[in-house]
Each structure stands twice: as structure tokens, then as C-alpha cells.
Design goal:
The structure holds two protein chains of two kinds. Chain A is of the alpha+beta class. Chain A has helices at 77-83, 85-117, 120-137, 146-159, 192-197, 204-218, 221-239, 245-277, 283-296, 308-318, and strands at 2-9, 17-24, 27-30, 35-38, 43-44, 54-56, 62-65, 140-141, 167-172, 180-182, 187-191. A seven-stranded antiparallel sheet of chain A has the order 4-3-2-1-7-6-5, with no helix packed on it. Chain A has a four-stranded mixed sheet with strand order 8-9-11-10. The longest helix of chain A has 33 residues, at 85-117. The radius of gyration of chain A is 33 Å and the shape is rod-shaped. Chain B is α+β, with helices and mostly antiparallel strands. Helix content of chain B is 62%, strand content 12%. Chain B has helices spanning 16-32, 38-51, 66-89, 93-120, 135-151, 157-169, 185-210, 214-222, 231-268, 284-300, 306-319, 344-348; strands spanning 7-9, 11-12, 53-55, 58-62, 122-124, 127-131, 172-174, 177-181, 271-273, 276-280, 321-324. In chain B, α4 crosses α5 (135-151) and α7 packs antiparallel against α9. Chain B starts with 6 loop residues before the first strand and ends in an 8-residue tail after the last helix. Classes of the chains: A alpha+beta, B alpha+beta. Chains A and B meet through α1, α2 and α3 of A and α1, α2 and β4 of B.
């Protein structure tokens, strides 16, 4: 038999009565009041260390047990977890492992799935906004001769996989300079300065760049990026944003940084495959990267692009 | 018998190591259940903190039902997803704006529901707290004070703040007895003035420390081509940004602590409940220090010391709050836990802090 001293409140007023509570044979007794209740008539709150438990009685009242006493009619998993230092330590290790997993593999994997499920219309809506923003702020009409444009358009068509929706746009941009990028919708934007950078007379380097951008579209990189950064954002806000938004932002930043490296490599792979398949040399693309390499030193610290050296090495290796 | 009421000190009996265990297990279970456990986690967390707050040998209790919180969260997250899909993916901008406007118009009601929720599920000695302000009282408050603040370009803000505290506290009861808050408007003006001075000092400090880097900023502003930007000017700006950020964090947490203490003392020293009266002597400098050191501890342990930081802060506040009065038995419970008003749980999602 277990005996406890408890505070009793009738639920009608704040009057406190101290009572004796006996537990034996699956019954709870209050000798002073001549009350007898079976276990399933009584709702006991799960024990939290250092906090009084409450026992709700069927007569509308409840008792508050001393904070050092434990009344356990049913086993509670949560109390069990909290009760030992080793359990808490294991929980901590699990949390760290699970968070790292969710932020890396978990989010990449789910971003891939979500990006493939999302209808094409979503990509178009997202791209429409960014495209008109770019056009208003950064993009000027191209100055490339018509013959060059036609030549590149034909080569572009040649290396595009038959079922893929892509469209090539030429622009000039004094701000974005030698650059090319792909929107999730399949709109690929090629800037004049980059074309001028290619010293190859057949502009094979540029065709390589186009292959690279087609690779981004084919593998839905931009869309995955958007999905992944929102997943990581939500996850970090949910679990660690609680105590510091700084850490949350930092995590998002670090993960997406790593992300583009991987994607650039995948797109380079696609470019190499497309070039080789259509009988182009990889050399001009390597030369183009080499000439761009000089420009990256200035802002290396903030560059999210993988180092060109890495990419050049990769292409060198791809040459049969 | 003398007429002098006896004074009871609020006491916080929780400790960081117990709270750490609760916090960790809560987090693990929330993660493995993809957040479904989080309402239970919230309830357990609050049960610990309320249950560790003791006055006159009885503790407070948090009695909310996790399932109702879960339903509330599902509704809120559902509408958020609905909004995102409409606005960002489908491009129905106008519809999304209407949705946003509706949310804005609902916010006084939501705040009221959150206060009701918080009060109803707080219990002490078998008696629940209650909040009885009407929906119209909340809308009237917001309409009047928005207009007043526009007309006076914000000069009435301290008064608005006081009236808001009064709206909440003077319509709150413990059982059958009402709270009465009679803080002076002037003390709120003094509080706001101190706040403005402290923030001005912070900006002055940033300006003073950063003055030598201003030349780098102006040179960057003048540069039209990237080639014109020198390495020095970029470094100068980075140093300046560092100084600015560090000052915001350091001054920010110090100021927050000072204001919390001053505000807390204004509230508790002017609050009474029938024959009972509250008082407090939160130490401003102490709270400022706790806030700053907490921020640093949390940052450098990647959040691991959050439970310690939280307990420290609560312990100071609770143990520097007092209640004078004797008739602890004389309150009649008026709350029927089953009679809920619509949407209380959804409002709880926003975790509106009502400061009592």
C-alpha cells in the first residue's frame, strides 16, 4: 500500500484541503472522505520531474500530489525518456544526426521528388516573374550579328534532347557581363559578352555552355534549388529558429552554397555528353572556362559558383 | 489580528538540468513525428514552467489540451499553404491580397482569442483565470488607437501601449474576482523616452565607431564599374558591418533586458486582485546582463544552452515578484473548460505574449 499526502481542490473554489491518499489493489482511497475510486475512474497527469502531478477525480475535484512524489498508474514513454541522463544524451545525439541528415540528404532527396511532381505550369509562373524582372533591370537588346544568332540557334536545336522544352534568348548586359543562365521554364539566356569571350571560330565553347544550361533545365536544377531552400528554411525555422534565427539563416546559406556546386557539376556532365555525342571538341569550352577563371578572383569569397579549376579538371578528364 | 496583509514571494522551483531533459525529449519526438508531436511538446514545456511557479505553497498549472492545439495548428498551416499556392504558384495576386486583408481585419479578434486561450488554461488552486473582454472592445481599441496614432504621428504610442495592457488586464479575472491595473500614463511615457534615448545611444556608438570606415562606403557608392572597387573599401565595409551587427546584438539584448525590467515593474506594482496586491523589484541591470550573456551562451553552444538561458531569465522575474494578501481560499471558479469559443486554438499558434 502506498500512502501520500495530497492537496485537494473541489474545482468550485480555491479552498485547499490536505487529504491522505492510499493506493492498493487497483483502487484509490481517501480515508478522510470515505471515497473509493478504481484506477480507470481517475485521470493522472504524466509525471514531470520536479512538478506536482494532478489526479482528476470523477466528482469534479482534483488533487495535487507533492512535487517529489510519483504516482504512476500507467507507464509513460515520455517520462521514461526524461528520467535518465543517458536517455537524454542519446536523444541529443539522435537529434543532431537526424537534423544533419534532414538538411543534407533528406532535403536534396525530397527536393528532387517535389521538383518532378510539380507541374510545368509552376515553373512557368516562377520564371515569368524573374524573366520580366531581369528584362526590366539588367537585360538590353543583343548586338550580335544575325548570322551568329542563327548559327547558335541551329546548334542549340541540334544538341537539345527531342522532348525537352527549351528556348534560347540573346541579350546584352553591361552589368551581368559574360554570363548565361537557365530559368526553370526552359528559357535560356545567353549574354553577348560571353559569346565574345569564346576565341573558337566555330563558337564551340558557347555550344558547350548551351549544353550546360540545357543540362540545368533537363535536371530541373533551378526548381530543385527553390524547393530545397524552402524546405531547409522551413526546417531550420521550425527546429532551430526557436532560439536563433541567425543560425537558421546561416544553415540555409551553407546548404544552398554546397548545392550549386553539385548542380554545376551535373550540368557540366550533361554538356560534355552532348558535345561528344554531336562530334564537338571539349577543348573550346575548357579554354572558355580558363579565360573566365581570371575574373573570379576578385569576389572569390562570395562566389557560390564552384571553382572553375575544379570544373576544368573535370572536363579535361572527360576528353576521350 | 492586525490588518497588515502578509506578503508572499513567488518562487521558481524549476532547474536547468530537468528542463534540459524535457526540452531535448520534446525536440526529438517532434522531429521523428514530423512535427505532429509539437503541441504535446508545447503543453509539456508549459506544464513544467507553470508547475514550477509557486506562491503560498501552491503551483500554477497549464491545462490546455494538446489535441485542440494540434487542430489549431493544422488550420493555420493549411491556410498558409492555401495562401502560398494562390499567390506564388497560381498567380491569383488579387485573391491572395483579399486573403491577406481578411487576415489583417481578423487580427484584433485573433489577439482576443489568444488571450482567452492563455487565461482559460491557466489554473491555480483549482480556479481558472478568465478573460471577458468582448470582440467589440478589441475592435474599438484598434480603431480608436490606429486613428489616434495617425493623427498625432505616433505621439500617443505610450498611451496606446498602456491602454492595451489595461484592456487585457482589466478584463481578466481569477475566478470571480477581477484584476485591476491602474498604471499611470506618465510612467509609460517615461519608459518610451528611456527606450528612445537608449536606441539613440546605440546608433551614436555605431556612428562613432564606424566613422573611419565611411570613406570606404562612399568610395563604393561612387564606383560605377566593379574594377573601381578597391580591396580596401570592401574590407572597410566588412569591418563596419561587423561593428554594426555586434552593436545591434550587444546593445539590443541589453536594452531588451532593461525595458523588460522597467515594464514588468510598472505592471506588477500597479496590479491588484480584489484584496490582493502585486509588487515586483526586477533588477534592470541584472536582466540586461542575463539577456546579453544568454544570447552569447546560446550562440556559442549552437542553442544547446537554451534551457539554461530560459530558466535563468524566468527565475529572476519570478523570484522578484510578490503577492500581498491572505484570503487565498475565497475565490470561486467560474470557468467551464468545456465551453470554448471558436478559434481559440488557432490564435494560440501565434504565441501572442501577454506578459502576465
Amino acid at each position: 500500500m502506498n500512502t501520500f499526502r495530497v492537496d485537494f481542490f473541489d474545482g468550485k473554489s480555491s479552498k485547499k484541503t490536505t487529504l491522505t491518499l492510499d493506493i492498493h489493489d487497483s483502487f484509490i482511497f481517501f480515508p478522510e472522505k470515505n471515497w473509493k475510486f478504481s484506477f480507470d475512474q481517475i485521470k493522472v497527469s504524466t509525471k514531470i520531474k520536479g512538478v506536482s502531478q494532478t489526479l482528476n477525480l470523477p466528482n469534479g475535484g482534483y488533487c495535487s500530489v507533492d512535487k517529489n512524489d510519483i504516482i504512476e498508474l500507467k507507464k509513460s514513454f515520455v517520462s521514461y525518456m526524461e528520467s535518465k541522463k543517458t536517455h537524454i544524451f542519446i536523444s541529443l545525439v539522435l537529434i543532431i544526426a537526424l537534423s544533419l541528415f534532414a538538411l543534407t540528404y533528406g532535403s536534396t532527396w525530397s527536393a528532387k521528388i517535389v521538383a518532378n511532381i510539380l507541374p510545368q505550369k509552376v515553373s512557368q509562373i516562377i520564371s515569368k516573374e524573374s524573366f520580366s524582372f531581369l528584362k526590366e533591370n539588367y537585360l538590353k537588346p543583343t548586338k550580335l550579328p544575325n548570322s551568329t544568332q542563327t548559327y547558335l540557334k541551329n546548334s542549340f536545336k541540334k544538341i537539345t534532347p527531342p522532348s525537352l522544352h527549351v528556348k534560347l534568348h540573346f541579350f546584352n548586359s553591361p552589368i551581368l557581363k559574360e554570363n548565361a543562365f537557365a530559368l526553370p521554364s526552359g528559357d535560356i539566356i545567353l549574354l553577348d559578352d560571353l559569346v565574345l569571350k569564346d576565341k573558337d571560330k566555330n563558337l564551340t565553347g558557347i555550344i558547350g555552355v548551351l549544353g550546360h544550361e540545357i543540362g540545368h533545365v533537363k535536371r530541373k536544377h533551378a526548381l530543385q534549388n527553390i524547393v530545397k531552400s524552402s524546405i531547409v528554411g522551413v526546417l531550420s525555422a521550425y527546429f532551430i529558429g526557436d532560439f536563433s534565427t541567425i543560425i537558421a539563416t546561416l544553415t540555409t546559406g551553407l546548404v544552398t552554397l554546397n548545392y550549386s556546386r553539385e548542380f554545376e557539376k551535373e550540368a557540366d556532365e550533361e554538356a560534355a555528353i552532348a558535345l561528344k555525342k554531336h562530334g564537338y571538341s571539349l577543348r573550346p569550352l575548357i579554354n572558355l572556362f580558363k579565360s573566365l577563371k581570371g575574373h573570379e578572383i576578385q569576389s572569390k569569397l562570395f562566389s557560390t559558383h564552384p571553382l572553375f579549376k575544379e570544373r576544368i579538371d573535370f572536363l579535361e578528364k572527360s576528353i576521350p | 489580528m492586525d490588518n497588515e496583509n502578509s506578503t508572499h514571494n513567488f518562487e521558481f522551483t524549476g532547474n536547468a538540468s530537468d528542463y534540459f531533459g524535457i526540452w531535448i525529449v520534446n525536440m526529438l519526438l517532434s522531429i521523428v513525428t514530423f512535427g505532429i508531436y509539437s503541441p504535446w511538446a508545447k503543453v509539456r514545456n508549459n506544464k513544467y514552467l507553470y508547475g514550477s511557479t509557486v506562491v503560498n505553497d501552491s503551483n500554477f498549472e497549464y491545462t490546455a489540451n494538446p489535441i485542440r492545439i494540434l487542430i489549431g495548428r493544422v488550420i493555420v498551416i493549411g491556410s498558409y499553404i492555401f495562401y502560398i499556392v494562390l499567390a506564388d504558384f497560381m498567380g491569383y495576386v488579387i485573391f491572395a491580397q483579399i486573403f491577406l486583408l481578411a487576415f489583417l481585419l481578423l487580427s484584433p479578434w485573433l489577439i482576443r482569442q489568444a488571450v482567452i486561450f492563455r487565461m482559460r488554461y491557466t489554473r491555480y488552486r483549482g480556479v481558472h483565470f478568465m478573460h471577458s473582454a468582448t470582440v467589440w472592445q478589441y475592435y474599438k481599441f484598434f480603431i480608436i488607437h490606429i486613428i489616434l496614432n495617425i493623427v498625432t504621428i505616433g505621439l500617443v504610442a505610450p498611451y496606446t501601449y498602456k491602454e492595451f495592457k489595461s484592456l487585457i488586464l482589466n478584463n481578466t479575472s481569477y475566478g470571480n474576482k477581477n484584476f485591476l491595473f491602474n498604471g499611470k500614463t506618465s510612467s509609460f511615457y517615461i519608459l518610451f523616452l528611456k527606450n528612445i534615448i537608449l536606441v539613440a545611444v546605440m546608433f551614436g556608438f555605431i556612428f562613432y565607431m564606424g566613422s573611419e570606415y565611411f570613406s570606404s562606403i562612399s568610395s563604393l557608392a561612387k564606383a560605377s564599374k566593379p574594377e573601381d572597387i578597391s580591396r580596401n573599401s570592401i574590407e572597410g565595409i566588412l569591418v563596419f558591418l561587423f561593428i554594426a551587427y555586434a552593436s545591434f546584438i550587444i546593445f539590443g539584448s541589453l536594452i531588451k533586458g532593461l525595458l523588460e525590467a522597467w515594464l514588468g515593474n510598472i505592471i506588477y506594482n500597479n496590479l491588484s486582485l480584489d484584496d490582493f496586491s502585486f509588487s515586483s523589484d526586477w533588477e534592470a541591470l541584472k536582466l540586461a546582463w542575463i539577456n546579453l550573456s544568454n544570447f552569447i551562451l546560446i550562440l556559442f553552444t549552437l542553442g544547446l544552452l537554451y534551457p539554461y538561458a530560459k530558466i535563468r531569465l524566468i527565475r529572476h522575474k519570478v523570484s522578484h515578484t510578490y503577492l500581498s494578501g491572505d484570503n487565498f481560499d475565497g475565490f470561486i471558479n467560474t470557468c467551464n473548460e468545456e465551453s470554448r469559443s471558436l478559434g481559440e486554438e488557432t490564435a494560440d499558434f501565434f504565441d501572442f505574449d501577454i506578459g502576465i
